[in-house]
Amino acid sequence: MKRVAVTEIYEDGQPIIKQGTHGEGTYVILSGSVAIKIKVDGVDITVATLNKGDIFGHMSFIDKQPRSATAVSIGQTKVGIFDMDYLENEINKTSEDFRMIIKALTERLRETTSKMVSLTAKYYKLTGKTE
Question: I need a labelling partner for 103 at 20 to 30 A (CA). Which of 23, 60, 62, 120 fits?
Protein backbone atom coordinates (compact mmCIF):
# COMPACT_ATOMS: atom_id res chain seq x y z
CA MET A 1 0.00 0.00 0.00
CA LYS A 2 1.65 3.19 -1.16
CA ARG A 3 -0.66 5.27 0.98
CA VAL A 4 0.67 3.72 4.22
CA ALA A 5 3.67 5.67 5.49
CA VAL A 6 4.44 3.74 8.69
CA THR A 7 3.42 0.45 10.27
CA GLU A 8 3.22 -0.21 14.01
CA ILE A 9 2.57 -3.33 16.08
CA TYR A 10 0.51 -3.24 19.28
CA GLU A 11 0.15 -5.96 21.89
CA ASP A 12 -3.16 -7.11 23.40
CA GLY A 13 -4.92 -4.35 25.34
CA GLN A 14 -2.52 -1.62 24.24
CA PRO A 15 -4.19 1.68 23.29
CA ILE A 16 -3.49 2.89 19.77
CA ILE A 17 -5.33 6.22 20.05
CA LYS A 18 -6.99 7.79 23.09
CA GLN A 19 -10.35 9.51 23.44
CA GLY A 20 -10.08 13.27 23.87
CA THR A 21 -6.60 13.61 22.38
CA HIS A 22 -5.80 15.50 19.22
CA GLY A 23 -4.30 13.69 16.30
CA GLU A 24 -4.53 13.52 12.59
CA GLY A 25 -3.31 9.97 12.15
CA THR A 26 -5.66 7.75 10.18
CA TYR A 27 -5.08 4.02 10.57
CA VAL A 28 -5.79 0.84 8.62
CA ILE A 29 -5.68 -2.57 10.30
CA LEU A 30 -3.18 -4.81 8.52
CA SER A 31 -3.62 -7.77 10.88
CA GLY A 32 -5.42 -8.42 14.15
CA SER A 33 -8.40 -6.56 15.59
CA VAL A 34 -9.17 -3.29 17.35
CA ALA A 35 -11.89 -2.44 19.88
CA ILE A 36 -13.29 1.08 19.61
CA LYS A 37 -14.29 2.21 23.12
CA ILE A 38 -15.90 5.34 24.48
CA LYS A 39 -15.92 6.25 28.17
CA VAL A 40 -19.06 7.99 29.40
CA ASP A 41 -19.78 8.71 33.06
CA GLY A 42 -17.02 6.31 34.07
CA VAL A 43 -18.42 3.48 31.94
CA ASP A 44 -16.37 2.00 29.08
CA ILE A 45 -18.56 1.06 26.14
CA THR A 46 -17.30 -0.85 23.13
CA VAL A 47 -19.00 0.68 20.10
CA ALA A 48 -17.25 -1.40 17.43
CA THR A 49 -14.80 -4.20 16.84
CA LEU A 50 -12.73 -3.66 13.73
CA ASN A 51 -10.74 -6.19 11.73
CA LYS A 52 -8.21 -6.42 8.91
CA GLY A 53 -8.82 -3.76 6.28
CA ASP A 54 -10.93 -1.53 8.53
CA ILE A 55 -9.98 2.14 8.98
CA PHE A 56 -10.17 4.25 12.13
CA GLY A 57 -9.02 7.68 13.30
CA HIS A 58 -10.44 9.32 10.20
CA MET A 59 -13.02 11.55 11.88
CA SER A 60 -10.34 13.66 13.60
CA PHE A 61 -8.52 13.98 10.30
CA ILE A 62 -11.68 15.26 8.62
CA ASP A 63 -13.07 17.63 11.26
CA LYS A 64 -9.91 18.44 13.29
CA GLN A 65 -11.79 17.68 16.54
CA PRO A 66 -10.42 15.63 19.45
CA ARG A 67 -10.63 11.85 19.19
CA SER A 68 -14.15 10.65 19.99
CA ALA A 69 -13.00 7.19 21.11
CA THR A 70 -10.11 5.07 22.26
CA ALA A 71 -8.85 2.33 19.95
CA VAL A 72 -7.42 -0.69 21.80
CA SER A 73 -5.60 -3.66 20.28
CA ILE A 74 -7.26 -7.06 20.60
CA GLY A 75 -4.41 -9.54 20.54
CA GLN A 76 -1.32 -8.56 18.60
CA THR A 77 -2.36 -6.06 15.95
CA LYS A 78 -0.44 -4.47 13.10
CA VAL A 79 -1.68 -1.14 11.81
CA GLY A 80 -0.62 1.11 8.99
CA ILE A 81 -0.71 4.86 9.38
CA PHE A 82 -1.77 6.67 6.25
CA ASP A 83 0.66 9.14 4.75
CA MET A 84 -0.75 12.53 5.75
CA ASP A 85 0.49 14.21 2.56
CA TYR A 86 -1.38 11.57 0.56
CA LEU A 87 -4.61 12.13 2.52
CA GLU A 88 -4.35 15.92 2.33
CA ASN A 89 -3.71 15.70 -1.40
CA GLU A 90 -6.71 13.42 -1.92
CA ILE A 91 -9.08 15.53 0.16
CA ASN A 92 -7.91 18.68 -1.63
CA LYS A 93 -8.78 17.08 -4.99
CA THR A 94 -12.45 16.98 -4.02
CA SER A 95 -14.78 19.90 -4.57
CA GLU A 96 -15.65 22.24 -1.71
CA ASP A 97 -19.26 21.00 -1.92
CA PHE A 98 -18.18 17.39 -1.49
CA ARG A 99 -15.87 18.28 1.41
CA MET A 100 -18.85 20.01 3.04
CA ILE A 101 -20.87 16.79 2.68
CA ILE A 102 -18.05 14.70 4.19
CA LYS A 103 -17.77 17.10 7.15
CA ALA A 104 -21.55 17.03 7.67
CA LEU A 105 -21.54 13.22 7.66
CA THR A 106 -18.68 13.19 10.16
CA GLU A 107 -20.51 15.62 12.44
CA ARG A 108 -23.69 13.57 12.25
CA LEU A 109 -21.77 10.37 13.03
CA ARG A 110 -20.19 12.00 16.10
CA GLU A 111 -23.61 13.18 17.34
CA THR A 112 -25.32 9.84 16.73
CA THR A 113 -22.53 7.85 18.37
CA SER A 114 -22.54 10.20 21.36
CA LYS A 115 -26.30 9.75 21.85
CA MET A 116 -26.06 5.96 21.50
CA VAL A 117 -23.19 5.73 23.97
CA SER A 118 -24.95 8.01 26.48
CA LEU A 119 -28.09 5.86 26.36
CA THR A 120 -26.04 2.66 26.67
CA ALA A 121 -24.20 4.07 29.72
CA LYS A 122 -27.53 4.95 31.36
CA TYR A 123 -28.80 1.45 30.65
CA TYR A 124 -25.66 -0.10 32.16
CA LYS A 125 -26.03 2.03 35.30
CA LEU A 126 -29.74 1.22 35.68
CA THR A 127 -29.29 -2.50 35.20
CA GLY A 128 -25.91 -2.85 36.93
CA LYS A 129 -24.60 -4.41 33.73
CA THR A 130 -20.99 -4.07 32.71
CA GLU A 131 -19.60 -4.79 29.30
Answer: 120
